Structure formats: structure tokens, C-alpha cells
């Protein structure tokens, strides 16, 4: 029975058939001529803030972080030898790739890139393995012991890197490994940074204790549980650690500057610094070198994003359980 408000006058059409409730859409068999109700939750004043938070703000943040990359590419496409522009240029006035062609002529570009690639190829897997093993070990501690370990890692994280440069250099000098890649790979043996260990510790905290206990009842050792049960469930954390480790070792300038003395062992960031000292006024040449240094990091980040978006978190666990 339909209740009408006081003073409402029923027309002949209105009185002949009941009206649908507000906010309810009629079914497929509803008579024609009914006005379909609208869902008040999908429209109204809340739609605009939702649109701003979902599209406008991410677009603004993306433009904010992409602007330096864009202006760097634009600066590298200026004619060779041109000075820096006085104002920001959205497009190069006379596009030219002469700066990229001159890079291999002034520095051994491909040797520097190969040296950096070799360091990264060793350091990134070692960092992932050491950080994940350490984080998994902290996950197995009691809550009180884990809390103390996390506080210790946070305390180490607060120590500035510059405070240990002299000590590290003296240790590597006494070990006789200066002018080798050992000092560049040594941070990977310590998981790179306490932050990466904490990241894995928090990620492994989401692995249920029931799965770890069931694996132990089946006779699996802790290394097997780490590899087949725990690690497949924290693939997003593994991708994040790999990207962070790649970015650090690829763009590391201080360690090669301190420990590498032979020019044939220079990594690309140190070679780029040498290029800046060699020709500090050629702005397009310097920007071209920066673009070459930035492209691998961007490519690795995009690949990690693609893997993460297309990843099935249970697929690796199922495949690991069938081995």
C-alpha cells in the first residue's frame, strides 16, 4: 500500500498504478512509463571529491615527479654546445641528437655501462637474499625479541652514512681490496640497508603461523619454508627491495669515487662526473648523460609495476608446493 504525504493530489495516471520506491530501480518486467529511480549514492556532491581524489590528484603528483625528467630530455635535445636555457622550455627549439652521438666519443660510455651492470647484477640478488633471510629470521622471533631487534635496526638507520666513510675506507684499505669492486658489493652482504630488512620483516608478518607450522609438521626445514612457503607470498616486497637495490647501486657515486682509482673500472655515475669536469659548459651533453643514467632505473621500475599488476600471489605458492 502506497502512502502519500498530506496535500498530495493524485492524478489519474498516478492513482492507477503504484510508484517505485525512491532509489530503487524497477526490474526487467516493470511496466513502461515508470521513471527509474536513481541511486543517490552514485551521484551528488560526493562524486566530485571522489573524482578529484581518484584522477586529479594522482595526475598532479605524476606531473610533479615527471617534470624534471621531461625537462632533462628536452635539454638533451638542444643543439650541441648550447648554454642552459634562461627559462623552462617545454619543447626544444631545434631538436638534435648530436649530444647523444658525442657521448661515446668523449668517454668510454659502453665500458662504464658494462661496469655498472656487472655491479648491479651481483649486488641486487645478494641484497634480496640477505634481506629476505634476515627478515624471515626476525619473523620467527618472539614478539618481545622481535621488538628489540626492530628498535636496534631503527637505531642503526638513524646513523648517517658519512659518519662511517673513514672507518670503512680504512678497513677496505687494510684488507687490500681498494680499487676493486668488493667495497661496492659489500653493502649487499649486509642487506643494503636496515630499511630493507624491516620491509621484509613487516611483509613476512602477514604469513599465517598455521602455514609455517604445517610446513614444519611435514618435515620441512626453515630454509625450505623460507623459499617455498614464505617468500612466494611476499613478492610485492621482493619487487620493492629489488627496485630500491637496483636504483641505489646503479646511481651510487660516493663508493666508486672513494674506492675506484683505475679508469677502466669506473662505473657510469663516476664516468658521468668525469664528463662534467671535462666539459662543464656543454649543457646538452650533460643532460644526455643524465638521460642515459636515468633510463635503466625507469625501465626497471615500470617492469616491476607490470609484474606486480599481473602477478597472482598464490601461483608461486601453488607451484612451490608441487615441487
TrEMBL record:
Do you know which CDD domains this protein is assigned to?
TM_PBP2
- Domain (ABC transmembrane type-1) spans 113-304
Q: Which Gene3D superfamilies match?
A: MetI-like
From its record, what is one biological process in GO terms? Answer: transmembrane transport
UniProt-listed PROSITE patterns: ABC_TM1 (PS50928)
Ranges that cross the membrane: 51-73, 112-138, 150-169, 181-202, 237-260, 283-304
Q: Where is this region: Disordered?
A: 1-42
Topology in the lipid bilayer is annotated as: Multi-pass membrane protein
Location(s), subcellular: Cell membrane
Q: What is the scientific name of the source organism?
A: Nonomuraea terrae
What is the phylogenetic placement of the source species in the record? Answer: Bacteria, Bacillati, Actinomycetota, Actinomycetes, Streptosporangiales
The UniProt keywords, alphabetically, are: Cell membrane, Membrane, Transmembrane, Transmembrane helix, Transport
Gene Ontology CC annotations of this record = plasma membrane
Hydrolase among the record's keywords? no
Task: Keyword check for Cytoplasm, yes or no.
Answer: no
Any idea what this protein is called? Carbohydrate ABC transporter permease
Amino acid at each position: 500500500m502506497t502512502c502519500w504525504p498530506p496535500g498530495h493530489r493524485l492524478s489519474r495516471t498516478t492513482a492507477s498504478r503504484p510508484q517505485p520506491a525512491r532509489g530503487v530501480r524497477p526490474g526487467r518486467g516493470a511496466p513502461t512509463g515508470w521513471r527509474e529511480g536513481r541511486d543517490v549514492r552514485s551521484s551528488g556532491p560526493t562524486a566530485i571529491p571522489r573524482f578529484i581524489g581518484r584522477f586529479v590528484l594522482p595526475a598532479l603528483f605524476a606531473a610533479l615527479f615527471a617534470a624534471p625528467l621531461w625537462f632533462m630530455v628536452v635539454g638533451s635535445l638542444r643543439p650541441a654546445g648550447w648554454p642552459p636555457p634562461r627559462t623552462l622550455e617545454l619543447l626544444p627549439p631545434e631538436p638534435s641528437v648530436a649530444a647523444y652521438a658525442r657521448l661515446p666519443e668523449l668517454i668510454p660510455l659502453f665500458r662504464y655501462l658494462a661496469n655498472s651492470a656487472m655491479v648491479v647484477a651481483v649486488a641486487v640478488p645478494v641484497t634480496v637474499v640477505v634481506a629476505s633471510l634476515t627478515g624471515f629470521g626476525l619473523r620467527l622471533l618472539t614478539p618481545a625479541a622481535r621488538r628489540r631487534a626492530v628498535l636496534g635496526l631503527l637505531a642503526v638507520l638513524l646513523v648517517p652514512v658519512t659518519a662511517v666513510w673513514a672507518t670503512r675506507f680504512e678497513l677496505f684499505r687494510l684488507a687490500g681490496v681498494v680499487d676493486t669492486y668488493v667495497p661496492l658489493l659489500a653493502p649487499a652482504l649486509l642487506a643494503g640497508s636496515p630499511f630493507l630488512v624491516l620491509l621484509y620483516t613487516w611483509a613476512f608478518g602477514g604469513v599465517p603461523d598455521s602455514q609455517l607450522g604445517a610446513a614444519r609438521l611435514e618435515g620441512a626445514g626453515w630454509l625450505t619454508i623460507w623459499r617455498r612457503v614464505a617468500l612466494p607470498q611476499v613478492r610485492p616486497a621482493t619487487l620493492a627491495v629489488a627496485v630500491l637495490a637496483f636504483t641505489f647501486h646503479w646511481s651510487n657515486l660516493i663508493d666508486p669515487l672513494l674506492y675506484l682509482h683505475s679508469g677502466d673500472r669506473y662505473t657510469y655515475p663516476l664516468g658521468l662526473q668525469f664528463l662534467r669536469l671535462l666539459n662543464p659548459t656543454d649543457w646538452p651533453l650533460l643532460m644526455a648523460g643524465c638521460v642515459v643514467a636515468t633510463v635503466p632505473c625507469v625501465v626497471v621500475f615500470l617492469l616491476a609495476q607490470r609484474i606486480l599488476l599481473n602477478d597472482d600471489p598464490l601461483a608461486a605458492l601453488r607451484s612451490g608446493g608441487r615441487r
